[in-house]
Write a structure and sequence with these properties.
This protein is mostly helical. Helices cover 39% and strands 3% of the residues. The chain has one domain: Lysozyme. Helix 2 packs across helix 3 and helix 3 crosses helix 5. The chain is globular, with a radius of gyration of 15 Å.
Length: 144
């Protein structure tokens, strides 16, 4: 009973979010449609794979500093989006975190572009640990 109540309260607090789990090729096509250059798409796909397993409504557990990571690219609410719960945030992308936590990835892509423009793909630890220098970066050739 307690689990059901906590789940209900969390759903109300975050808004009703229907996750959409993409795969490599559906994400590739969406990124291309949103103007991401084909040469960079494998890096984006790799980040989404390791951060959220392609889940648009992924919310990471609290980080040691209390911040959370939102959406398909696990964008951190301490720096990039407004968590909406009173915790401080630089909100560099000037968006609510909830907008990064939906089945429409346009806001997440726009914010991730800002992150990449300022810090590069290395802003994601998962890129450094799993995707950098070409390691584990998936081929997207079969998606076209």
């Amino acid at each position: 009973m307690k689990i059901l109540l906590v789940s209900l309260l969390l759903a109300i607090a975050l808004g009703s979010v229907e996750p959409r789990i993409l795969d490599k090729c559906s994400l590739t096509r969406e990124l291309a449609g949103l103007g991401i250059p084909r040469a960079n798409i494998p890096n984006w796909v790799c980040i989404a794979q390791y951060e959220s397993n392609y889940n648009t409504a992924e919310l990471g557990p609290p980080n040691p500093d209390g911040s959370r990571d939102w959406g398909i690219f696990h964008i951190n609410d301490r720096y990039w989006c407004n968590p909406g719960d009173g915790r401080p945030s630089a909100n560099t992308c000037q968006v609510s975190c909830q907008s990064l936590y939906t089945d429409d990835i346009a806001a997440a892509v726009t914010c991730a572009r800002t992150i990449i423009r300022t810090q590069g793909f290395a802003a994601w630890n998962t890129w450094n640990n799993n995707c950098g220098r070409g390691a584990n970066v998936p081929s997207i050739d079969d998606c076209y």
